[in-house]
Amino acid sequence: MCGRYVVAYDPDTLVSGFSLTRVQPFPKRWNVAPQAMVPVVYETRDGERVGELMRWGLVPHWAKDESIGPKLNNARVEGMAEKPSFRQAVRRRRCLLPASGYYEWQPIAPPDGQKSAKPVKQPWYISPRNAPFFAMAGLFEAWRAPGSDESAPWLLTCCVITTNASPLVAHIHDRMPVMIAPEHWAAWLARANQDAAAMPPLMQGLPDSAVQAWPVSRAVSRSSNEGEALIEALPQLA
Fold first, then answer.
1. Is residue 163 in a domain?
2. Facing residues of 96 across strands?
3. Which of 19, 26, 27, 198 has the most C-beta neighbours closer than 10 Å?
């Protein structure tokens, strides 16, 4: 799964990294949680590559209301092309969610003799080596309430695609975001490519040598906490 991540780059980094023609301004954040507005890279119907803010939590175009969004923060890669919530987006509305890194929680066994102790989860920060961000694979939708006037604004929402964890991350959690390698960005974003069967080769991820991870403070577990200190390694555990 992916439940928290970091946006510690600025808009100009996306412009140069993805060759965007335009990008919406956004602040740096070190504890992005579901339902937040997040920067998303996608290709418009006119073939323009842009960066725009979308709400994290997918609202399918057929939804009667927005309440489904918090349930669709992530899309499991297994079977997503057949699921009603995701299948149209897999073909027509793929995107990338740039992340400076993301957090995952590792279950920690209670000390010997404390079987009744409350389970503890240790957060870890997982980030790219020698790169400003991961390009997490995602899907997006444009939704408008049924019966709305044609002048009503569209709600843009997105989700992160997840897969089985790589060996580096598996000891922390069994799932991780799908990372799209730079050489596959163009094919992933291309709206003209509507063959769902062509997507798996683009989602092979990054080698573990391109990824690093370390334990961080449990302060990140509270979504209201913010700041660069959240990604600092715990020296006694690193």
1. yes
2. 41, 137
3. 26
Q: Which residues are catalytic?
A: 2, 104
Count how many domains the chain has.
Answer: 1
- 147 versus 9: which is more confidently predicted? 9
Measured distance CA(199)–CA(141) in Å, rounded: 18
Give Dmax over CA atoms of the chain in angstroms: 64
Q: Where residue 47 sits, what CATH number does that domain have? A: 3.90.1680.10
In sequence order, the 6+-apart residues with CB closer than 8 A to the CB of 36 are 29, 55, 56
Q: Residue 52: exposed, middle, or buried by beta-carbon count in 10 A (0-12, 13-18, 19+)?
A: buried
The overall average pLDDT reported for the chain is: 94
**Amino acid found at 1:** M
Instruction: Give pLDDT tens digits for 105-153.
Output: 999 877 665 665 677 899 999 999 999 999 999 999 999 988 888 888 9
Tell me which residue range forms the domain holding 81: 5-103+131-207
CA distance 181 to 179: 6
